[in-house]
Fold this protein.
Amino acid sequence: MSFLVLFFSSFVVALSGALMPGPLLAVTLGNSPHYGWKFGPLAILGHGILELGLVSLVFLGAGPLLQAGQVQGWIGLGGGVILVWMGKGMFAVVRSGEFTEKSSGPGRSGHRAVFLGIASSLSNPYWTLWWATVGLAYLTVAAERGPMGVAVFFAGHISGDLAWYTLVSITVSRGMGLSDMKFYSVLMYLCSGVLVVLGFWFVYYGARLVV
């Protein structure tokens, strides 16, 4: 497989996965109107840092371990608790009215976006399972081209995530803005509810595997 084919196939596979609803999308939708279009790319920065570490583990032989039922179970339990905590935090922000002024400072808001990108990815057991199965298979193919092949694969993968979540942030932050606070409140409540529901489901999923 040529480097060009490897890059674009990895890009498309990542994009197809990014289009599926999940914790990271809910967090991006809920925070982009307040923090602006940069929230998506910064969240993907956190997501990418975590993925780089996981890719390294999988490449070094941790794939079978990550597929183990007990491991997936504990990831589900821990991730579920994190999602419930994030959902409750978002709900509290809406009720307090702290989101009424748009943040423009890159410091604290940037750190928050990166942290939420890491937390929302880490809390999703299906993300880990994907890398232990589909990701591992792709890494095997990429590794045939040496370290450069793995680098090209990862570059294509993270580019797919970055393209989609940047588009989401731009669309939500500019298309909706903060002029219609009622609509934004509803969106925030909806996203917080999605995170809480996903969290409880992941706890249930994890408990079944552990017990």
